[in-house]
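User: What would this chain look like folded?
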Amino acid sequence: MNAEELRKLNEVDLSKKLADLQKKQRELRFSKARGELKNPLEKRAVKRSIARILTIIRESKV
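Assistant: Here's the prediction, encoded as structure tokens.
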């Protein structure tokens, strides 16, 4: 999701999406350690999505 789509969501939905992405990031990290990771660029995309959501949450609190 891009930033415009995320800004339309409320804080509860953002928190749920953040939790899902953090879970996915953890699973990707474990699959990399086991040598099962198919697409290493997916880790980068998830990390950037987490950062994007955290930024939007912080912007809304100001």
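The chain has a mean pLDDT of 94. If you want, I can go into more detail on any region.
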